[in-house]
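Hi R.,

As promised on Friday, here is the backbone we talked about, encoded as structure tokens. Could you run it through your design pipeline when you get a chance and send me back a sequence?
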């Protein structure tokens, strides 16, 4: 299957395998951030506890992938860029976030074609969140 082909499911949420698989992905993402030295800068800007980011990113991704809108129901519009403005995000932080997420997608068995599509979408979102080294 190629990225040009029509996606086989109505939503990425169904394609990934539903809420349990999103949970597994997010858990692995934050575990890797904690464990791996190449994500040290990313880990550092998160402060001592990852618990809140872990919970909220799970809620957010369920909705962003086309599943239940838990995040929006609890907090309103995500305003992701605004909500990250107190976090310094430059090229290094963006790229560590993307590499960590890509490794988590690989290790939790996200289907390869979906992984390629999500890589592209995550890049767009993470790049738009850069707030260092760019005009505000
Ligand atoms: C596609 C990219 C990203 C997504 C989807 C995402 C998603 C989220 C979400 C949903 C939250 C919770 C927001 C809230 O309600 O407070 C969060 C928190 C956070 N994110 Fe991201 N994020 C992304 C990229 C990044 C990047 C590149 C960094 C780089 C350092 C980062 C650092 C953080 C930190 C430090 C928090 C915790 C903020 C706090 O609790 O004060 N994020 N992220």
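Update: got your reply. Pasting your designed sequence below so it's all in one thread:
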């Amino acid at each position: 299957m190629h990225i040009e082909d029509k996606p086989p499911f109505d939503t990425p949420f169904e394609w990934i395998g539903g809420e349990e698989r999103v949970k597994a992905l997010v858990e692995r993402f934050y575990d890797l951030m904690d464990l791996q030295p190449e994500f040290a800068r990313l880990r550092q800007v998160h402060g001592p506890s990852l618990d809140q980011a872990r919970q909220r990113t799970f809620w957010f991704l369920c909705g962003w992938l086309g599943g239940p809108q838990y995040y929006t129901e609890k907090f309103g519009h995500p305003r992701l860029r605004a909500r990250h403005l107190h976090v310094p995000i430059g090229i290094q932080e963006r790229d560590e976030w993307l590499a960590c997420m890509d490794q988590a997608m690989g290790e939790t068995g996200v289907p390869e074609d979906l992984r390629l599509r999500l890589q592209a979408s995550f890049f767009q979102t993470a790049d738009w969140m850069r707030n260092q080294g760019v005009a505000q």
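One thing I noticed while checking it: The CA atoms of residues 33 and 39 lie 6 Å apart.

Thanks again,
M.
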